[in-house]
Amino acid sequence: MNRILFAAGIAALAVPATIAISAPAPAPAPAKVHISNFTFGPKALTVKVGQTVTWTNDDDIPHTVVATDKSFRSKVLDTGQSFSFTFTKAGAFAYFCSLHPMMTGKIVVAAR
Length: 112
Prior knowledge:
By secondary structure, the protein is mainly β. It is built from 1 helix and 8 strands. The strands form 2 sheets. Strands 2-1-4-6 form a 4-stranded mixed β-sheet, with no helix packed on it. The longest helix is centred in the N-terminal third of the chain and has 13 residues, at 2-14.
């Protein structure tokens, strides 16, 4: 009987153990909007809940980024300055430049 138990123990040691390790999901790529020539580019951008969008003013005059639903608002951005906002809920978020209201854009936030 001891030989059988011993043999079974040796056989169990000989079988390699498989351990499943799940890596965390990779972070989404940074979402960027550039302000240039009085336009937001891209004009529409789709991101996921929890993702951060960064707007950068590449124009030589100041601009702002203001959500029409008032969920976010930047300070006045001079050339080279940026504003970031993390979207925590799904939906469509229209925005504009308060200094140049004809400048508009939209962020579409998809559920994970």
